[in-house]
Design goal:
- The complex is a heterodimer.
- By secondary structure, chain A is an alpha+beta fold.
- Chain A contains one helix and five strands; from the N terminus they run ββαβββ.
- Chain A has one domain (2-60): Beta-grasp domain (Ubiquitin-like (UB roll)), CATH 3.10.20.30.
- Helix content of chain A is 12%, strand content 31%.
- A five-stranded mixed β-sheet of chain A has the order 2-1-5-3-4, with no helix packed on it.
- In chain A, a hairpin with a 2-residue loop joins β1 and β2 (7-9).
- The longest helix of chain A has 8 residues, at 17-24.
- The N and C termini of chain A lie far apart (35 Å).
- The model of chain A has no long low-confidence stretch (mean pLDDT 93).
- Among the domains of chain B are: 274-485, Aldehyde Ferredoxin Oxidoreductase Protein, subunit A, domain 2 (Orthogonal Bundle); 500-626 and 688-724, Aldehyde Ferredoxin Oxidoreductase Protein, subunit A, domain 3; 633-687, no CATH class.
- The interface between A and B is medium-sized, with 22 and 31 residues.
Amino acid sequence: MITVNGEQMEWEEGLTVQRLLEQKKYNFRMIAVWVNDEVVLKRLYSEAKIPDGAVVQVIHNISGG
Amino acid sequence: MSKTPMKLLAEWTYEPAKIHRGYSRETLYVGLGNKDGNYKFEKRPVSDDMIEKFTGGRGFGLRLLWNAVTEKTKWNDPENEIVIAGGPFCGITQYPGAGKCYSVFLSPATKQTYNSNAGGYFAPFLKFSGFDAMELQGKADRPVVIFIDGDNYKVQIFESNLPDINAYAVSEDLHEYFAKDEADKRTISVVSTGIGARTSYWAGMNFSFYDVRRKVVRLKQAGRGGGGTVLYDKGVVAIVVKRTHFTGLENDPADIKTIQRCGTSLHKRIHDLDDKQCLMRSAGTAHLTEIMDAYKLLPVHNYKFGCHKDIENISSRSYIKLFTQGMADGCWYGCSLACAKGVDHFRLATGPWKGREVTVDGPEYETAAGLGSNLGIFDPLWTIEANFYADHYGLDTISLGTGMAFVCECYELGLINKENTHGLDLNFGNKDDIMELLHRIAHGTDEFAIACGHGVEEARVYFSEHYGADLATMKKIGMVCQGLEASEYRCQESIAQWGGYFLTLKGPQHDEAWLIFMDMVNKQLPTYADKAEALFFFPNFRLWFSLQGLCKLPWNDIEPADNGVRYKGLEAARVPEHLQNYLDIFEAITGKHLTREGMIEQSEKVYNFERIFNLRMGRGTAKYHDAPDRGLGPVWEDEWLARPDYFDGKLKEFGENIEGLSVKEKIALLQKHRRKQWEELKLAVYKRRGWNKNGIPTLATVKRLGIDYPDVVELLKKNLKPEDEFVD
């Protein structure tokens, strides 16, 4: 299991940041991803692996109204 | 319009004050008498105390309005004022977003103070003419046009001879009337409303600027709260200001180089990053529609649902094709964010200007959603037409959209029928009849249309008393609080945004706090203390813009490329580099050093003063902070069944065993839990803001902020009760 934005989620072998964002349908342009308190740069999303038990924060930096 | 001279009724000349460090230190008072032609003009000094405690803009407006009215004053009493003010930043041309002004008045809709902002050239020109603010009081004995001639330092009042009082007509006519030639039109700005102001409480004020490339008048709206209704009630068709010559140094700043440095860096950032971030230059705020849909935050069918299969029709991709691209769409000099998008050569299909080709300002996100998805309409051309006429008639697109969505749901529920609507079939998505309702509301065609235009709170009472509609049901579904219709975000799944809408000074307008993503998606506010902190910080931070004459958009609708990874948590949401720009520029203009803490304290003074002002007007207590059921969760079965697993899961999080429960029972249970959460949020927020349990600022709070004026203290002493105190 991993924790994504405070919620439990099934972990799978080889799970990348890119795959996680697709699964969660997080498609906003201005997203910052932190895995176990380490930031993952956008250009590394498709190769950055998320380990089992990780705490992931996907921060949408959206300005809104 | 021919230049048939308007009859001069009164004239006053003045010696202009020189602007120093962002302030002229004088305000303009225009009294219209009490329908007796007794016009009065004054220059009034701005004291050190006023600058220290109220800063400018909305703060000046509230202070001046406080002095002008009593606790008994109603919105349509002569002593009510419209105060228009910029602020110390207002008029700078080196940093984007510095042309804003705030209009402050007692509102017909909310029955308390309201403040609404707009871009356009009015506030900078008013300041360059020598005034930090303008107070308009009284009622004219005939329709008048007020002309502030900042070139020749005189103020004139004319009897209006304008044939059409709608905003585009008035603005075009008066730019033409007061300009010497085509090039001179840019030196003019007009404030007007429209025919909607005659009977509706939704009429706002349109602030113009002349678009030299398109050769048309553009309008920016201080739409909310009914300022246009007040303007019309005063007999004012328009306020015009003219100022021909000005430079980028008009504010006499202490340190122009710092302003230029900050401006240059932001211009470059906008140039380099906007296309990858918020698309403000190509889509404006309409870039939000598909994002809100993806996260189920788009209001659909009076906020019942959060997304719709036809979203692509009203997505930014659709609007980008309709907006004219490549134009310098800033609403004040130097704003390269240029979000004032427009649709050119749009041929109107309905209404008094049917067949005419026009330029339409917008739609912005709020209009695309309010006069679109929330009405079940996913046709951008319909929305553009509705946007045009709303602006032209002076109607606020947000209240109009939310209000008509409420009416449509009442119709679909059978609470009102076709006989009540005078033949209109007001099902969601019925474009022709909803457009007809818009025209009827504007013209006050019949008693149903007039009732609608008085807003959801008054309309539902009318529907109940005259049509037998069930008031309790309408209270559940009407997205309104403190007399103001909610803006266009579906907030029910974010506890913090309940506060962002319903624990506000003036009602559910998103300018105080927009916390949906931070709370609901990012989960950055897990506790009530976290939510309360956000509902303390962001309303105060955002209010700061309204004191300075600033637009909020260049703060966080563009960010440094590394903002999201360089800073974490709420600090990233503050956009620290841009926040520092504002602190630096404040010092560079005024010569006074300002810290982050000082910035929040500046706002807190005005935030609390406004709260106390509303208390003075008989409101401003906890009972007026009330959230409708629709704001907290599903009301009907079809809402639940749109996301059954999600809502079932929410009940399980509360530890409920939902086996065997009907959907109706589940809805009641979820509402019960959320109502409890709402009450807990309310108390946490009040405490953090330094208020008592009844939502009233404490004596300690006003003393700390230095706004413990004798009349403020006296008012608080009358209303603060020992049983409402928080006990630590």
